[in-house]
Amino acid sequence: MKNLLLIFLMLLLSACGQSKQGAAELASVRANQAESALRQPSQRELDRIAADLDIKYRLVTNIPGKHCDANQSEGKCFEVELSFTAGEAIEVNNWSIYFSQIAPVQSFESQEFTIKHLNGDLHRISLKDSFTGFKAGETKKLLFRANFWMLSESDALPNYMIYSEQLQARIIKSTRAKTDPETGLEALPFVEPIHDVEKQFKRNKQDATRWLSSKDLYQRNLALGQGTADVSRVIIPTPKHIRYVKDDNTGEHRLLDIRRGVKVDFGPLDKKAVNAALQRLESLGLAVSDTGKHQGIPLSLEVQADDSKVIGSYGLEITPDAIKITGVDANGVFNGLQSLASLMRIGAGELPLVSIEDEPHYGFRGLMVDVARNFHSKDFILDLLDQMAAYKLNKLHLHLGDDEGWRLEIPGLPELTQVGGRRCFDPQEQDCLIPQLGAGPDPDSTVNGYYSVADYQEILKAASERYIQVIPSLDMPGHSRAAVKAMTARYNKYLALEEYEKASQFQLHEIDDTSKYSSVQYYHDNTINVCLESSYAFVKEVMTQVQAMHRQAGQPIRRYHIGADETAGAWTESPACRAFIADNDAGITGADELGAYFIERVAGILAELDIETAAWSDGLSHTRKHKMPPVVQANAWGLLPWEGHKQAHELANRNWQVVVSTPDVMYFDFPYEADPKEHGYYWASRHTNTEKIFQFMPDNLPVHAEFWLDREDRPFVSDDTYIKDGQGKLLSAPLEEGRKFLGLQGQLWSENTRSDDLAEHKIFPRLLALAERAWHLPDWAVPYNYQGFKYSRETRAFDDNRRKARDNSWALFAAALGQKEFAKLERADISYRLPTVGAKIESGRLWANIAFPGLDIEYKLAGQNWQPYHGPVALNGINAGAAAPKIQVRSVSKNGKRRGRTTYVR
């Protein structure tokens, strides 16, 4: 009986086992059936997915958690949720999504997708074997973690691409950038708004940055005063000495009626020397003539050379009967005409009687524009030159080559622009570069392109007519991926033709170099091999061609910017570099010295061509002074809260020409205000508005610790004393007695600046404050202390009297922008940034104000239309609180054609 029972139990267990096995087999069959239902897509099906798949990008948190990789980005990471919703069923596989993500992905979580960082910012989302397709309306999600933080909605990049082998890549429609119809600026509808202060807006719990509310902005704007300032006598940039003529009886300022225009007497001056300035006067409404028939106010132009005065100095006299401008050179006369234009107000027919003696504070007054990362048109550059000249800036640092693009035609090296000037979907990079920075697969996109020789020479001629020196930059040896890949394509082309000598003539990469590195922008192949003689042949050929272009255009190239910054740790496994280090007469003993050696050698090549060297401070700081030419320009870009003044001082003490390019105030690609909707990077500053630039005292870098904060809005200390290590070695020191900086330069980097309008939005009106600080030394500026000093919030070198004088000066400057200068920018079709509006609800009324008095304000109540704001608005019982977000405010351009970003009153 027991045996029968045992047999029965065994049979029962066997049956159960077979049942489980059968169920597993059935599940496997069903899975295989599901998998077999997914197949290779056709181009039509791929196009349908691109048109139909809805992608959403949502920041989850910036607060690092246990999943952050401790070996990357100092253990800091942020989390993003990507969601994919299919409008129609997707029953194909073997496709991938390529997308740009500035901060590389560390890790991810998904049952059906994987992410891989490829190069630079390019990533690929692939399908796992477990991918089952999409049902109509189904949403699938993918969580990933990336390095550091995401604090701005503009960090996300557009133009996700879907791709399958043997098919054409397509942009996924839902990820395309749109244009905001009110502001004219780029918008990314697929990016969900940032709203959580603690998890999304701040870097960490110690971050003291305040999200700028309309109420906070209202309070800040109150410092500008309540009345309408008289800006009729304001000139931007402010002259060194100015005296206005008053009526002896009334005490009022006397005026000159200019409604009948001016009649110009050029004397011995060539009309071409000032033609651009006269054209601007005409564009502002002043009739200009030099014919005998015209009965306008006499305007005489003279040149009186004076070696005791700075280049570009001038005098301007407006009397009851005439206007006279005297310059120490033609540039000075040109500047005097621009001051005349600055006195003008659109629609007004009078000028104040005035006597001016003026000269620039700095000889170098510059702006750097990056057209390499994302291309900007020739027309944009020409318009920019007009405005630079209007405000007396005289140096255009044109950044033409970087990892993502080469933007200047070089005769004899067509690959540089044919390959390096375009991004498309070519994994082999023989026809174009791989897409970066959300460029998408279209090689004809406006973010791609280059200046032909004719284009570039047109820019040079326009610059010369405006007394602006163009300083070209093609970044080397790092930041050189576009050049490296272009010359690799050239190498492959001639190798296939068995023209071996030509193939290696300008080779920038070494085939057998197995070095592994990652640049600051996460490229592993962006650095020129500095141990190849062909690299120096390339530099010489390029510079010889650039020199010829300048000469033919009538603006000889006097200075070239090597770049030389952020060079990654390349060359460690390069056979050529190992051989060079083992046997050279340059004194090089290790791979860490090769970057400086490259700069020294390129500086020598430039010297042979009679071209001066310029470069970024971090690259130059490692060079040996005795190996460099006597004239070197160093762009100092150290952060002030990180004691960046020390490197600027060290390079100036080498007797090099230091151009202050401080990121926390001089980088125009940073946000204007602390708000996630403000466009730009923020690694050095969360808010760099026009007032902050106006406050800058570039002669005295460390003093800003008294009143500025670091990138997390926390106090910092600037120690500008003599500092030695334990062995008595001097680590840092103040400027040597009498040392001064050459000048000041603003920077617009273009990683996420994809249009000309957005570039103008970031440059203007900050450019006007840059011009003010580069030209004029205000009385409230703290002189540099050559004995050294340690500055902090507790010290008082910048005392209350200076602060009050500065703030009063800013109030007048801001009013001049709002009442006079913005209208002039609009005449030139410049898309300057319209400020967000300050507003509050108090005692049942809406109160609003603006950073630039003179611009109009509009408000909108829930369910109603926009209305002009003329003063406090009764809200019929609405008070601050839950109802407040229903009220919106925005600014209006002077001509009424554009609107600023709409904000809620909170």
From TrEMBL:
Swiss-Prot/TrEMBL keywords: Glycosidase, Hydrolase, Signal
Coiled-coil ranges from the UniProt annotation: none
Pfam family, one: CHB_HEX
Keyword Transmembrane: no
Active site: 566 (proton donor)
GO molecular function, one term: beta-N-acetylhexosaminidase activity
Domain Chitobiase/beta-hexosaminidases N-terminal: 51-216
CDD domains: E_set_Chitobiase_C
Signal peptide positions (record): 1-23
Top enzyme class: hydrolase
Enzyme Commission number(s): 3.2.1.52
UniProt key word Transmembrane helix: no
Catalytic activity: Hydrolysis of terminal non-reducing N-acetyl-D-hexosamine residues in N-acetyl-beta-D-hexosaminides
BP term (GO), one: glycosaminoglycan metabolic process
Entries under InterPro entries matching the protein: Beta_hexosaminidase_sua/sub, CBM2/CBM3_carb-bd_dom_sf, CBM2_carb-bd_dom_sf, CHB/HEX_N_dom, CHB_C_dom, GH, Glyco_hydro_20_cat, Hex-like_dom2
Cited SMART domains: CHB_HEX (SM01081)
SUPFAM superfamilies, A to Z: (Trans)glycosidases, beta-N-acetylhexosaminidase-like domain, Carbohydrate-binding domain, E set domains
GO cellular-component term (any): membrane
Family: Belongs to the glycosyl hydrolase 20 family.
Protein name as annotated: beta-N-acetylhexosaminidase
Organism: Thalassomonas viridans
